[in-house]
From TrEMBL:
The lineage of its organism: Bacteria, Bacillati, Actinomycetota, Actinomycetes, Pseudonocardiales. The keyword Transcription applies. InterPro entries: RNA_pol_sigma-70_dom, RNA_pol_sigma70, RNA_pol_sigma70_r2, RNA_pol_sigma70_r3, RNA_pol_sigma70_r4, RNA_pol_sigma_r2, RNA_pol_sigma_r3/r4-like, WH-like_DNA-bd_sf. It comes from Pseudonocardia alni. GO terms for molecular function: DNA binding; sigma factor activity. It comes from the Bacteria. Residues 1-14 have a biased composition (Low complexity). SUPFAM superfamilies: Sigma2 domain of RNA polymerase sigma factors, Sigma3 and sigma4 domains of RNA polymerase sigma factors. This is RNA polymerase sigma-B factor.
Length: 271
């Protein structure tokens, strides 16, 4: 068998239009008719794949969207191109090389988006149903002039309504929403972000378990010490203000507070 030879044409940097790749048909035919391991076949294969790379780039831009890395989609498309080039059969290729290669490239891109572009992990069968439900819902929306009901989608797709509801829920999980994105209005005309609407940990939770023991320990204190604690920690008074109100020195207030707090700690530790 004659060894394949590379075309003397230089690498084409611009290819456009449906017939823009027809000049590569002889190379594809030659590659398909050459057994693996034949001298020169690897170089010819590399040349063909390189020449079809602009096609992958163009297709990847159509699938690119926020949250979908165009580089990852292009890489998936290159995998589809390599598979299609290796499987190329001149006898079954119709519509030129694009008619044979494009479905394989697009299929790998769609498979990548199905498997890796979801914000949460979703079973594969549910992903596939969600894609179908989304497409059918769009078509029915255009036909009906309104969003279709889940029951209508279920009838159209031919699956139970419960599965349609699960699929619609999965579609909501396809892309994660930013915590900084406004999701509503607080009545003042300014939208609140999701992060601002989310609850936060209540610092009082750590003290809830000590509540009963604390009340019992406080009840055992003399009246002056209890009043001093209330003024200091609930009334936000300074030691000087407490001393003036109780008619004692600030130094005495400081000693009493330290002694009282130490007693409370010991009581709570014992409990």
């Amino acid at each position: 068998m004659q060894s394949p030879t590379l075309s003397t044409r230089p690498t084409t940097t611009t290819r456009d239009g449906r017939r823009g790749y027809d000049d590569l048909i002889p190379d594809l035919d030659q590659l398909a008719g050459t057994e693996p391991g034949t001298p020169g076949r690897d170089a010819l294969r590399e040349y063909v794949i390189r020449e079809f790379r602009p096609l992958v780039r163009n297709l990847s831009r159509r699938f690119a969207a926020p949250g979908r890395g165009v580089e990852d989609i292009e890489q998936a498309g290159m995998l589809g191109l390599v598979k299609a080039v290796d499987r190329y059969d001149p006898s079954s290729a119709t519509g030129g090389p694009l008619g044979y290669l494009v479905p394989s490239i697009r299929g790998e891109m769609k498979r990548h988006l199905r498997d890796y572009s979801w914000a949460v992990r979703v079973p594969r069968d549910l992903k596939e149903l969600a894609v179908t439900v989304g497409r059918v819902a769009d078509e029915m929306g255009q036909r009906l002039g309104r969003p279709p009901r889940p029951s209508e989608i279920a009838t159209e797709v031919g699956v139970p309504i419960g599965e349609v509801v699960d699929a619609l829920g999965a579609l909501e999980s396809h892309h994660a929403k930013s915590l900084d994105a406004p999701v509503g209005d607080d009545g003042s005309g300014e939208g609140l972000s999701l992060a601002e609407r989310m609850g936060s940990e209540d610092p009082a939770l750590d003290l809830a378990a000590h509540g009963p023991g604390m009340r019992a320990a406080l009840n055992e204190l003399p009246e002056r010490e209890r009043r001093m604690l209330v003024l200091r920690f609930y009334g936000d008074r300074t030691q000087s203000q407490i001393a003036t109100e109780l008619g004692i020195s600030q130094m005495h207030v400081s000693r009493l507070l330290s002694r009282t707090l130490a007693r409370l700690r010991e009581r709570l530790a014992d409990d």
